[in-house]
Design a protein that fits this description.
The protein is an alpha/beta fold. Helices cover about 30% and strands about 25% of the residues. The protein contains 18 helices and 31 strands. β7, α7 and β8 form a beta-alpha-beta unit. α9 crosses α10.
């Protein structure tokens, strides 16, 4: 079944960012019809310059770049010129702190303005920016700052206690910049670290700064993503990522000059970086950002008040809005909306039907990953939607379904979703793990880890993950992290964690817990374990279901077999058990 789009763009997709030779990229931009898309200088560029600074030098300088709404309904707005000035001040602040090209600067913040201009200022300075979700606990903070050897951390008063607990094992961390009342910040202490109120230091900095133009393959930002085993891995992206992010924001999200755009993602994850800081602002869009917990009425009021035209959100949020009831929607004027898109996990057909019913518009699904740095497969504004499909590859992207041996499979054949390497936003490395980086590439393909098939019309369809990473409410959670945190609780010997299908959140986390001899599992212990995970790891990473077990299925080498836990839970075939120690 196809759905015709309500509105179609007259633009054609005629840009190809899939160039491995950066000299060719340079020539392409300056000698083609796309030469105005991205600004290069003698073959160099800076992602932050393209996102903000270049607009501050044109008629857009007085255009609102950011409408910001705080937790207590505080409201601020920044023009492109004002935002650029703030990024310059932050870059000068880093220079004052002796942060040099290639140093790591991390942000552990809620969605406050300092996160956005701080991130861009870091890129302007030539340092590498990193973001962390504000729900992280001390161990998650320590893992990321420790692996990256971050030199500077930017946080806020309400998060400082968690930071302090993590700092004792972070010798590379020198300075903690804190957002909040300077008088309160002055009372904070972290042994061996300088703790400084960012407000006082920032105000002393000049609004003039000469942005460092970088080689396209120099690192710009890094994000930590969870896997099925081991600690989170640091995915590094270069300044050239802005190319794919800009073009995909233009064509996959259909952004135009007169749009008011709202991406609901947190910049702790890649969507918030690529389509809330870089690609969207690179297109000159005005953005809305709210720093509040999810509330359906609040979301609808935000769309109404700011006359949002393009809305990019997650399937979980769409399902939660749907669950809030259709009568609520009718209380608000949402007629400004013209384009809806979805990200984070596969979008099933029902939310698309609901969007058509309530907004007169479909949600356009698209596919990409932290490692890809930008949207690679999408339902364009100019194409028909097939319910449940992730769409077609973006122009210049070569995607295929391949076997484990790299052979391209035919129509409707399930296999590995694979991409030909070389697109501009492809990850550059896994921080300090070269072998892990190499493992993504086999037989001349980037192997995504997703299983999918392609139909006769060229649409791609997601089947499932090839590994055990859990997607809950649009957030990736590695089972190893949750298992490790559970085992920190007194009396817990072992834990196995799986994702269990859930109609609202996509998946919920279920934990199988083995207790020490003499310990008894009960409802009180379940509640305590859930609180422990919320506090020490992340609010979204706690197991909503916990089952106490006597044994866990393991291989002879001692690795917990999560697939067998899932098979048992869902009543699926258990498959080969020849390597098991016990089951």
């Amino acid at each position: 079944m196809k759905i015709k789009l309500i509105k179609k763009t007259k633009q054609t997709v005629n840009f190809t960012p899939n160039l491995q030779d950066y000299k060719k990229t340079y020539r392409y931009f300056f000698y083609s019809d796309a030469k105005k898309e991205i600004d290069f200088f003698d073959g160099k560029l800076n992602a932050a310059y393209n996102a903000v600074e270049r607009h501050a030098k044109t008629w857009r300088k007085n255009k609102v770049a950011l409408y910001w709404v705080g937790a207590e309904n505080e409201k601020l707005k920044f023009t492109f010129k004002e935002l650029d000035d703030k990024t310059n001040q932050f870059a000068n602040l880093l220079n004052h702190l002796k942060v040099r090209r290639g140093d790591r600067v991390f942000f552990f913040l809620s969605r406050v303005p300092e996160l956005y201009y701080g991130f861009l200022g870091t890129l302007k300075s030539g340092a590498i920016a990193g973001t962390m979700f504000a729900a992280f606990g001390p161990q998650a903070i320590e893992d990321r700052l420790g692996n990256s050897s971050a030199k500077v951390l930017v946080t806020e008063l309400s998060l400082f206690d968690r930071v302090k607990k993590a700092t004792s094992n972070l010798p590379a961390l020198e300075t903690i910049l804190v957002v909040g009342d300077p008088k309160l910040v002055a009372r904070l202490r972290a042994p061996g670290k300088k703790v400084i109120a960012i407000t006082e230091l920032l105000e002393k900095q000049s609004t003039k700064y000469r942005t460092h133009m970088m080689r396209p393959n120099e690192p710009a930002f890094m994000l930590y993503t969870s896997g099925t085993t081991g600690k989170p891995k640091g995915v590094v992206h270069t300044h050239s990522a802005i190319i794919q992010e800009h073009i995909s924001a233009k064509y996959a999200l259909d952004l135009k000059d007169d749009d008011v755009y709202w991406c609901t993602a947190d910049p702790g994850w890649v969507t918030g970086v690529a389509y809330e800081i870089l690609g969207s602002w690179s297109n000159g869009a005005s953005e809305v950002i709210i720093n509040r917990k999810f509330d359906p009425a609040d979301w609808y009021k935000t769309i109404e008040d700011y006359k949002v035209t393009v809305w990019y959100t997650a399937p979980t949020a769409i399902r939660m809005l749907q669950a809030a009831g259709d009568d609520l929607i009718r209380k608000y004027d949402l007629s400004s909306l013209r384009y809806l898109a979805s990200v984070g996990e596969p979008l099933n057909p029902e939310p698309i039907r609901w969007g058509l019913k309530m907004f007169g518009l479909p949600f356009h699904d698209n596919w990409w990953q932290t490692e890809t740095g930008g949207i690679l497969i999408a339902n364009y504004a100019s194409m028909d939607i097939k319910l449940g499909s992730m769409g077609k590859p973006m122009h210049g992207i070569t995607a295929a379904i391949v076997s484990d041996k790299g052979r391209v499979l035919g129509i409707n054949k399930e296999g590995n979703l694979a991409i030909k390497p070389g697109w501009s936003s492809m990850m550059d490395k896994i921080w300090r793990r070269p072998n892990k980086y190499k493992s993504y590439f086999e037989h001349g393909w980037y192997i995504s880890g997703d299983r999918a098939f392609r139909d006769k019309d060229g649409y791609f369809w997601f089947i499932g993950r090839a590994d055990d990473v859990i997607k809950t409410s649009g957030e990736r959670v590695g089972p190893f992290e949750v298992e490790s945190a559970l085992m920190e609780y007194p009396g817990v010997i072992e834990a196995g964690v799986i994702g269990k299908p859930d109609p609202l959140r996509g998946q919920i986390i279920k934990a199988f817990v083995k207790l020490a001899p003499g310990k008894k599992g009960n409802e009180t212990l379940k509640t305590n374990l859930q609180k422990f995970i919320k506090k020490h790891l992340a609010g979204h990473a706690y197991p909503r279901e916990i089952e106490f077990v006597d044994t866990l299925p393991k291989t002879r080498s001692g690795k917990i077999m999560r697939r067998l836990l899932k098979a048992r839970e869902l009543g699926l075939p258990i498959g080969d058990t020849s390597t098991l120690e016990e089951y």
